[in-house]
Automatic annotation (TrEMBL):
This is Nitroreductase domain-containing protein. Residues 13-38 are annotated as: Disordered. SUPFAM superfamilies: FMN-dependent nitroreductase-like. InterPro entries: Nitroreductase-like. It comes from Actinomyces viscosus C505. GO terms for molecular function: oxidoreductase activity.
């Protein structure tokens, strides 16, 4: 077994503000532009352009009151354009909030549409100006193995947001990672609340296992790393024998 204290010191230095006698050194090398990420090979680019969203049936106050984490899902299909539109709007909010800083470290949402209405099941990537069909869904057992809980695969959709950690590090060192992680979490929680405001259910979780999506989502853990995720589904309806009345 090998103990490498120098690596640990470098990590601590990157997260530290330093001292008067030992200023912190950024971990950034500024060279991400020389290591461009290969373009994602999509089965059908611009497969869909979501239109404007209908008004949310629940206010923000009502949404906070009714929001909860759920891994129990109904079987009704999700309207694909509405769901992808919510993801697009959350991404637009991120870009609007952070401006040039968001452009320096862009986020990349992926949507596994498991039970969609209005389009075919598959893996989609959402951009600010459109949606790409990346590839068909893998077998169900492979989806179950992508996260720590198998029941996530029973949702109507799973949304995962990815980021280029090489770009984030080149932009701001350790602060670049923290900045990108915070924005990823904010986008996913924004989407979770948007779904709840439309009467849908789901739960936020820490994201996919890198080894499970290395080829499926072209994620090497550096130039594209899946940061945070959320399940979305229709609520489970009560069995007829348990219905009120």
């Amino acid at each position: 077994m090998r103990t490498d204290f120098e690596t640990l010191r470098e990590l601590i230095s990157g997260f530290s503000a330093g001292t008067d006698t030992r200023p912190a050194e950024p971990t950034s090398d500024g060279l991400a532009a020389r290591r461009p990420r290969p373009p994602l090979d999509c089965r059908l680019p611009d497969a869909l352009v979501p239109g404007p969203q209908d008004p949310y049936p629940h206010s923000l106050h009502e949404t906070f009151e009714r929001r909860s984490s759920s891994t129990t899902y109904g079987t009704e299909p999700l309207e694909a354009e509405a769901l992808l539109g919510m993801v697009r709007d959350a991404l637009v909010d991120d870009a609007r909030t952070w401006g040039t800083e968001a452009a320096a470290c862009p986020l990349e949402p992926f949507v596994l549409l498991l039970r969609p209405g209005g389009t075919e099941p598959g893996i989609y990537r959402v951009r600010l100006d459109g949606v790409d069909l990346v590839r068909p869904l893998p077998p169900a057992e492979e989806i179950e193995g992508m996260a720590v809980q198998k029941e996530f695969a029973r949702a109507g959709a799973i949304v995962s947001v990815a980021a280029n950690l090489d770009e984030a590090d080149a932009w701001g060192g350790a602060a670049g990672y923290r900045f990108t992680m915070s924005r990823s979490a904010a986008l996913i929680y924004s989407l979770h609340l948007r779904a709840a405001a439309r009467g849908l259910v789901g739960t936020v979780f820490a994201g996919f296992a890198t080894s499970a999506v290395r080829h499926l989502l072209d994620s090497d853990g550096v130039s594209r790393h899946q940061m945070f995720a959320v399940t979305i589904a229709s609520p489970q309806t009560e069995p007829p024998g348990q219905a009120a009345g």
